[in-house]
Write a structure and sequence with these properties.
The complex is a heterodimer of chains A (201) and B (198).
Chain A: E1 11-13, E2 20-22, H1 42-62, E3 66-70, E4 73-77, H2 79-88, H3 92-121, H4 128-141, H5 147-158, E5 160-161, E6 165-169, H6 172-189
Antiparallel strand pairs in A: 1-2, 3-4, 3-6, 5-6
Helix pairs in contact in A: 1-3, 1-6, 2-3, 3-4, 3-6
Chain B: E1 2-5, E2 12-15, E3 24-25, E4 32-34, H1 40-59, E5 63-67, E6 70-74, H2 76-85, H3 89-118, H4 127-136, H5 142-157, E7 161-164, H6 166-184, H7 192-197
Antiparallel strand pairs in B: 1-2, 3-4, 5-6, 5-7
């Protein structure tokens, strides 16, 4: 089925106020927003920020995310150590929540982003409907990977009992945060309209 | 009939006469084209009550823990400040923005969009605020902060007696009213009277 789209009818949509203009316009006459038929450099941006996220996820998972000091002994824990600790002490539910938020969500997000780039770049338009579903999903779950960072903030604030027990932030917290922010920017830069066959072929 | 295009696949769709009651979806990709909002005055009331919940929640005790006679207490802001104390300034900054400042700014933006336009200001003049609002939608993480409080509560309970402070209840109240505001506020509604003009 051939759809009437903004590109093959020579129109451009203002994403701010939903007004439809002729394609040669660059500024929206109603709200003053900038007009682009597709977000400029969308694919390149998405790809680059995904690479940044992949790069920062490596130290995020290998370095300790918190240092636990109790009765003189310092124990450094990575993200995975924390999850294993939950499961070994029997808190299966909370262990799975942290696992999903800090390991599964970034992994799913990056796979989906690369898949979306693949569809748009190699014009696999018959997979667009799949792609758009995944795109909506990562838009929803994206921010939940920040969960662990907030947990660490609270643990560091609460557990300050000098010699008995103290928790401090580890360097992985910062690389993890950078990775999460990069995946959010990558998702925001992507233009889902590039998934569809929009030119008149 | 006015024409518009789908944000997620670019298909041209004819907008039927908007009655602010029905929701419309894209025929090709099923994206929401129009979502009805609540009356503006209800949105303003909800945004104001949300701000009233948040301000005391920031500084009142959230959780407190007692180990061997030492009492440790934190607040919403205090938890974030602990990153500063550990020397992770950038991290503290990011968490502060996503956890607290972004949701609060969004509420202020809702008020800054709705009150001046209701008093007769041109919608075009509040367009920059509108851009910031749309942008912040992705960056507000108040709900993630709340769930992380529950996760740390379970962790902390193993250590010692944990006391829940008034700050947590206020924060829950803030998030409830915040999400009602976001749900009720449909920023595209403010452009409606312009639909008829041009």
């Amino acid at each position: 089925m051939n759809w009437k789209t903004d590109i093959n009818t020579g129109k451009v949509l203002c994403l701010l106020c939903d007004k439809l203009h002729d394609a040669d316009k660059t500024v929206c006459s109603r709200c003053g927003g900038h007009l682009h038929q597709r977000r400029p450099f969308a694919l390149l941006r998405t790809f680059n920020f995904s690479l940044v996220a992949i790069f920062f996820l490596i130290p995020a998972n290998l370095l300790p995310i918190m240092h636990v000091t109790s009765l003189g002994t310092v124990e450094s824990r990575t993200i995975m150590d924390g999850i294993v600790h939950f499961f070994s002490t029997g808190s299966y539910f909370i262990g799975s929540v942290v696992f999903i938020a800090s390991i599964a969500v970034p992994f799913i997000k990056l796979s989906v982003l690369l898949y979306l780039i693949y569809i748009a770049k190699f014009e696999k338009y018959q997979q667009a409907m799949q792609g758009i579903k995944y795109y909506r999903m990562i838009n929803l779950i994206g921010k939940w990977s920040m969960l662990d960072v907030f947990v660490i903030a609270l643990m560091v604030a609460m557990v300050q009992f000098q010699k008995i027990a103290t928790i401090n932030t580890g360097p992985a917290a910062i690389s993890f945060t950078v990775a999460v922010i990069a995946t959010i920017i990558a998702t925001k830069s992507f233009d889902p309209r590039q998934l569809w066959r929009n030119s008149s072929l | 009939m006015r024409e518009t295009a789908c944000h997620e696949c670019g298909v041209i769709v004819n907008k039927p006469k908007l009655d602010r009651e029905h929701q419309f979806y894209c025929p090709r990709c099923n994206a929401t084209i129009y979502r009805p909002g609540q009356r503006m005055r209800y949105v303003v009331v909800m945004a104001l009550s949300s701000i009233i919940f948040l301000i005391p929640a920031l500084f009142l005790p959230l959780l407190s823990l007692n180990i061997a006679g030492i009492e440790q207490m934190t607040t919403l802001v205090g938890a974030i400040a602990s990153f500063f104390d550990d020397g992770y300034d950038l991290l503290a900054f990011v968490v502060l923005i996503t956890g607290i400042i972004a949701p609060l700014t969004m509420l202020l933006m809702v008020l800054l969009i709705l009150i001046p336009t209701r008093m007769g200001m041109k919608v075009r003049n509040v367009a920059p605020i509108f851009i910031i609002y749309e942008y912040l939608l992705e960056w507000g993480m108040g709900e993630v902060y709340l769930v992380s409080i529950f996760v740390s509560m379970i962790k902390l309970q193993e250590m010692s007696m944990l006391v829940i402070g008034i700050g947590l209840y206020l924060f829950v109240g803030f998030l409830l009213t915040f999400f009602i505001t976001i749900l009720w506020f449909n920023p595209h509604d403010i452009w409606h009277k312009y639909e008829l003009e041009d």
